[in-house]
């Protein structure tokens, strides 16, 4: 990639990040391309040149964010980190939910079939990696083999939804509660020392 292409990619990334911040904070309808241009320190013409319409920009922003979030998760899954630490990081790391408001994404998916299809395509693309991870956890004895993979995937999705709440963000700031939540995740409510 030459210098011009690097500058172009940097500018596009700046626009994407500014759009994501503004759309997540204020909603799609309340943010104009001019506001995004001001936030990104570019001209509105640059946005039109790179992304076309506001609809084109939001589709690109959502697709890029979700693709990067899943790639980060796959890197984590494939890392040398111990299994329990991987699961703990997947559940309790809030970095992947900080950038996009899930309610905003849900509204977009409800109102735009193209975005809904994009999200489903990305999910299906990376689902095999998650299934292999769960299967490895069962084989290594970390995950109860009597629990169906379908239920485990649903459990991960439920925990992902909980991660986006303000209450969860408050809890993760408290080390004792975070440790207890981790214990609850791995062992449930029952006392594991009881026979």
Automatic annotation (TrEMBL):
Protein name: AcrR family transcriptional regulator
InterPro entries: Homeodomain-like_sf, HTH-type_TetR-like_transc_reg, HTH_TetR, Tet_transcr_reg_TetR-rel_C_sf
UniProt keyword annotations, A-Z: DNA-binding
Residues within the DNA-binding region(s): 32-51
Domain HTH tetR-type residue range list: 9-69
SUPFAM superfamilies per UniProt: Homeodomain-like, Tetracyclin repressor-like, C-terminal domain
Record's keyword annotation contains Isomerase: no
Short name of one Pfam family: TetR_N
Signal peptide limits: none
Keyword DNA-binding attributed: yes
């Amino acid at each position: 990639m030459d210098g011009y292409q690097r500058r172009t990619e940097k500018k596009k990334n700046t626009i994407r990040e500014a759009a994501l911040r503004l759309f997540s904070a204020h909603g799609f309808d309340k943010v104009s391309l001019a506001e995004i241009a001001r936030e990104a320190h570019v001209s509105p013409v640059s946005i039109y040149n790179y992304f076309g319409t506001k609809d084109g920009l939001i589709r690109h922003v959502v697709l890029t964010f979700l693709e990067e979030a899943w790639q980060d998760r796959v890197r984590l899954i494939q890392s040398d980190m111990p299994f329990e630490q991987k699961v703990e990081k997947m559940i309790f790391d809030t970095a992947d939910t900080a950038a996009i408001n899930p309610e905003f994404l849900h509204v977009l998916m409800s109102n735009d079939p193209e975005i809904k299809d994009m999200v489903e395509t990305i999910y299906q693309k990376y689902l095999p990696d998650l299934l292999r991870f769960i299967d490895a956890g069962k084989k290594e004895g970390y995950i109860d083999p009597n629990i169906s993979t379908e239920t485990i995937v649903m459990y991960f999705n439920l925990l992902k939804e909980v991660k986006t709440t303000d209450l969860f963000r408050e809890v993760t700031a408290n080390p004792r509660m975070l440790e207890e939540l981790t214990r609850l995740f791995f062992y449930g409510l029952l006392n594991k020392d009881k026979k």
